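I need you to check the entry underneath: sequence plus fold tokens. Let me know what the token row says about the fold.

>
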Amino acid sequence: MIPGAEERREGRSGTQAGFTLLEFLAAFAILVLFLSAILAALAVAIRGDHQAAFLTLGSALAKGRLAAAGIDYPLRQGSAGGVLPNGYLWRADMDRSARVPLDAGRSAAGYRVAVTVAEPPERGGRALTLRSFVLDREGRR
């Protein structure tokens, strides 16, 4: 036994309150681990919130561009695109697919349309594509 160890142990009475440096460091380390886990979970939640917001807005914009096929931009083989008022980029790729018979010997051209809406690169550059089959409203050949 180390000389004087009993004296030090006896010098600390049971009524004296306080923590040793080792106890404080252990508690601090546990607190740091707990806070880092909370911050990591918060970062994942914020990232998920941004992704959900993009999917909500992007799908509404892509649906609008699909509905505008043949109205705001012509249905023809190839691509059309532009920038929306909120800065998002859009592109419609059209591929003539088949002729669809209508009444009285008329037919309409059918197009496979894929509309892609993308965030500007400075906002993350995520993209969303919706696909549909659209009939040429004018029935052009």
Notes: The longest strand covers residues 89-101. The mean pLDDT is 86.
